[in-house]
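Session log. Operator J.P. requested a structure for one protein chain; no other inputs attached. Running the standard single-chain path with token output.
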Amino acid sequence: MSTPTLDDVLAKGVRGQRVFVRADLNVPLVDGRVGDDTRIRAALGTLRKLLSGGARVVLASHLGRPKGSPDPALSLRPVAERLAELLGRAVGFCEATIGPVAEAAVAALGDGELVLLENVRFEAGETKNDPELARRLAQLADVFVNDAFGTSHRAHASTAGIAAHVPRVAAGDLLRSELEHLAEIRSPVRPLLCLLGGAKVSDKLAVLEALTPHTDVLCIGGAMAYTFLRALGQPTGTSMVEEDRIEDARRVIAAAERFGRRLLLPTDHVVAERFAGDAPSKVVTLIPDGFMALDIGPETAARYAEEAHQAKTLFWNGPMGVFEMEAFAKGTEAVANAVAESAANSIVGGGDSLSAVNKLGVGDRIGHLSTGGGASLEFVQGLALPGVTALEKTAMESSR
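Structure written below.
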């Protein structure tokens, strides 16, 4: 099935139409203000197209995890204020998500105007994909546009459920771009290099199992590398190891051997006796008793960087060490620079990986910066994203 696009909707006209846009505006708030507006900026393209076309835009998003009830600390009002600054125009804010207050706010919209509804997760039925909530959200829409790639791997009322109740649906420009770029990992120009980091094998096991037969080279960093090294019988000191995932790690290693893929693990490590940014550290090839590995070492970083330079297609998700602590950020920074320097078609996803890229100012040298960590991992595995399949199903039914 093909996913209907925003351009398809615009071609038929949206002037005077209520266009319900589900975006991912889940941004960090610092002292009641937006701390990082990356995700807001990512939504601007779709919003500007719709507003220029005369649509009456009803914008919805979640923020944090309020557990189905209002939480003033997770209100989207600061997001509305920042969005107005970025758009250079007024942005209405509605303190409700559904019901008479929301209906009145939407009814008051003129052509080319926008209102942001309050946090959809203040509604208990959102994460349960409650059919009644989906229906009530749909009452605010003539057209539904899903531009929330970061949450499209979840079947929620505002991402999947609503699509069944609105006859005209489309993927926003951000969602379409994500799908197109990530599809290149499924059908890559080879060699394909996958750099995977992060804390837990359990968090990345499914993608490890899916990518291992498919990739040419798999480089593993972060704390999860030490579960793999333990599986190979190497000393790991007090490094984080998931004892219950050692057999899983062995299975991934065996799969790499069976399919003739190269699986690379750290050969040197930055270690310390305690988990602290000011802890004295040193570089070792074998981790001593009483020490924990908190970053890949310079030899490993150089090896991973060389793989990045040789790749034609490259996917990076997850830090190589405890990136939040400056003393243990060098491995992640080295990988970020190598990915930026590589001539490969590069795709970077995951919050910490994007933070590294942004911190170093190399984002404009990356082929694609994915806004959805979990969604991107599920998509490259070949899994269906409920928020996308809902669009495709509605579009197919509407065309009959």
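Operator note: The mean pLDDT is 94.
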